Amino acid sequence: MCGIVGYIGDSEKKSILLEGLKELEYRGYDSAGLAVLSDDCLEVFKTQGKLENLKSELKNKEFLDFGVSIAHTRWATHGKPSSTNAHPHFTENLALVHNGIIENYAVLKKELEEKGHAFLSQTDTEVIAHLLEETLKSESDLLKAFEKSINLLQGSYAVLMLHKRAKESLFYAKSSSPLIVGKGKEGVFFASSLSVLAPKVDQFVILEENSVGQISLENFKDLKNIENMKDYAFEDKDYSKGDFRNYLEKEIYEQHSSLLECLEGRLEALNVYCEIDPKFLENVSEITLCSCGSSYHASLASVYLFERLAKVRARAILASEYRYAHFKSNPNELFIAISQSGETADTLEALKLAKAQGLKTISLCNAPFSMMSRISDHTLLIRAGVERSVASTKAFSSQVMLLWLLSVYIGKQLGTISKEEERIQAKNMLNSVNAMKVEPKLHEKIKRLSKRYLHGHGFFYIGRDVFYPLALEGALKLKEISYLHAEGYASAEMKHGPIALVDSNLFTIALLSKHLLFDKTKSNIEELSARDSTICVLSSEILEIADDFIQLEESKSYMEEFFRMNLAMQLLALEIAMRLNHDVDHPRNLAKSVTVE
Which residues are catalytic? Predict the structure, then answer.
């Protein structure tokens, strides 16, 4: 969840570290800090809150001499957000930063306290610093002592450490958390994400699992699997908000172009293509989709498509449940892991388990060099582009579109979908892309409407079939950025308990499809209206009993309606949150890339 940066060289370190942290702030913004070692001087600076606070702390500070440096932006797991719990953690001789969770830290901490070590923070990370100091009492070799200390840890970690005894080196350790090292004209750089390094390095190495080592300018060439940066196509880092109020609004508006990018080369002359070799799909009789958060909602929606279009049994499972529930698999099962970052801890571990069971695996992600893309049999990039805002918009839409295309492609290879049906679905996909253009008139209406939905005791988002997972996603978006309570339900489930909550202060956002179960959903809406719920209907068909009505353009298919409703719900969540004066790009308690369990 946290982001880490490291640098060895003689360029001005403050700007390098702060630029790197800015690129990684989506991973956590509870606190930030950095440490610089030049000659015998170890300086540590830490602040609570967003990165701007650290920038203010360092306003008149420069680090010009050759040296080693590390930095960190934190999403709190152990210990509340505070400057004391912020990284780097340090002793007299060393400082370190960590992304991950040390599961046995309590046991180690107790042992170290019994040996006289005094802890300042409530974090699991500080135990690593004291563990190394203790190990150095019996092991004089610094690298060996570091390795021995790391071997005592249980859990996940990417660690960078600097020490006064090695003034030109950084020490690293990696297990189940991303860490990349690269070399360029200005020196050696470390980061949690390749996007941080892309403008600065000519070569890079994605460090192997369970690797521990020491890096200086001279021994970078000794690393294994060095890749040239020219082989990595990265996007322009100057990703400004332009005329938009925030990144979330910008990314909502960008979905039309990102979906076109997603379909580039995969949809031509109404023929569906895919990078997956047809032979790989032979004998597939079942599909498991494994993911978390918005990616899970995309998975749930695609289950309807795989079953309906490809005629293949499909199931969506939360990645956090997959590892421990011992779900039964079969030899002809295809396992699809879905994650925007390709580093989501639960999904990554589920993918490893699926691989160990001998299943065929595909990863859907937005990062070509992610851990998921490296260990799965095949990777399909969603090509959503940069997504700075924590709440997923472009990534969710692109995941649904790519899974839809994959369901048609698999049906095509298995012979369960006709050529004519393939053409129909291709047309529907193109229409759905166009449906994601934001019409100013629609946005303005939603902006005016949003002022009615700032109070009350909660929201129901309801829909049927594919619109049920979309209701879950709509509720999640509202929760993430407005902090209002919202729940998504299958419409018919209202009568099985939730309707007990309904009164005039309970808002219902109803997804009413013209093409799919219209009359059934309408009846469910009427049941809520009869019990005084305030009803907001999203549909192309006017419903008289609605208190508010967001009229959508006519759609030629239910999937086109899906994308139109998705766009409208994103705009509604945005406008409600902005009326409540929330920072929609950096919602409280959240981070974009969840790299810990």
Answer: 2, 592
